[in-house]
Design goal:
This is Methyltransferase type 11. Pfam families: Methyltransf_11. Keywords: Methyltransferase, Transferase. One of its GO terms (molecular function) is S-adenosylmethionine-dependent methyltransferase activity. Strands 1, 2, 3, 4, 5, 6, 7 and 8 form an eight-stranded mixed sheet that branches. This protein has 260 residues and is α/β, with parallel strands linked by helices. The longest helix is centred in the N-terminal third of the chain and has 21 residues, at 6-26. The protein contains nine helices and eight strands. Helix 1 packs parallel to helix 4 (79-92). The protein has helices at 6-26, 33-43, 60-65, 79-92, 129-139, 158-168, 178-187, 204-209, 217-228; strands spanning 50-54, 71-76, 97-101, 114-120, 140-151, 190-203, 239-241, 244-258. The chain has one domain: 3-Layer(aba) Sandwich (Rossmann fold), CATH 3.40.50.150. Strand 4 (114-120), helix 5 (129-139) and strand 5 form a beta-alpha-beta unit.
């Protein structure tokens, strides 16, 4: 996609995530304790950290970080997602979290405002992920850390994976392989400190309940995943568990440090 596609793609993101806000927040896999422990261990938040969570969605990561840091600000372009984030904050009593409406590619903050800048599951929706990573690096303090958590399919399976994800979620742009994602860190002036990989276990119908495919898309995806059992062209290890289809998104947590 080119920059000329940006307004149309932004509309897709607004449409999809306004509708997905509540079900996305309720998907168990997004708050899975084991995945969150891996994330927090990789980020190694400190009590004096001032954190920015970019494209924060329903505030899952921001609220998980809040007990471990001085303060957290979550930014998202979708008002409905921020509504869900505020509900989560109120339920947890996280007093040191604030929310702001804004664009990940044009962060409304001065340089070196945060010691830890994160984003989770956003880069595959971006037409220009490097622009967002450079913005994240810009607002990160010297010596601070920037972390991207996202799906990173195998290089030989990415194209098939992308086609399937665009059926499930029309706002999907392009998944980055781990090699591509780590190369972006170098281009943004960030020195990689840590890469943690894990599989995010998901049940297909649960994923579809939190998605809004085009008409007929859900049935196409069901057929695609069932045909992939024992084949793994998608690279997600689709398997049958009783009458259900389970699979695992290949996730990478990439943490870089801004040079001082």
């Amino acid at each position: 996609m080119t920059q000329a596609n940006q307004p149309t793609h932004d509309v897709l993101i607004q449409e999809q995530f306004t509708r997905q806000a509540r079900p996305f927040a309720e998907v168990r896999a997004h708050s899975a304790e084991s995945a969150m422990e891996l994330l927090l261990d990789a980020l190694a938040p400190a009590p004096d950290d001032v954190v920015l969570d970019v494209a924060c969605g329903p505030g899952i990561v921001a609220c998980a970080l809040s007990p471990r840091v001085a303060s957290v600000r979550g930014l998202d372009i979708v008002p409905a997602m921020l509504d869900e984030a505020r509900k989560r904050q109120a339920k947890l009593g996280a007093a040191n979290v604030a929310w702001e409406l804004g664009d990940a590619s044009r962060l409304p903050y001065p340089e070196e405002s945060y010691s830890l800048v994160t984003t989770r599951y956003s880069f595959h929706h971006l037409l220009d992920p490097l622009a967002t990573l450079r913005e994240m690096a810009r607002v990160c303090a010297k010596g601070g850390r920037v972390a991207v958590i996202d799906v990173t399919p195998a290089e030989d399976k990415r194209d098939v994976y992308d086609r399937a994800e665009k059926i499930r979620d029309p706002s999907h742009a392009r998944a980055l392989t781990e090699r591509e994602l780590t190369a972006l860190f170098g281009a943004a002036g960030l020195e990689i400190e840590n890469v943690v990989r894990h599989g995010l276990e998901v049940e297909l119908e649960a994923a579809l309940r939190a998605s809004f495919p085009e008409p007929g898309g859900a049935d196409r995806l069901r057929a695609l995943y069932r045909a992939d059992v024992g084949v793994d062209a998608l690279g997600v290890g689709a398997r049958e568990v009783g009458d259900e289809i389970h699979f695992a998104y290949p996730i990478a947590i990439v943490v870089g440090r801004k040079r001082g």
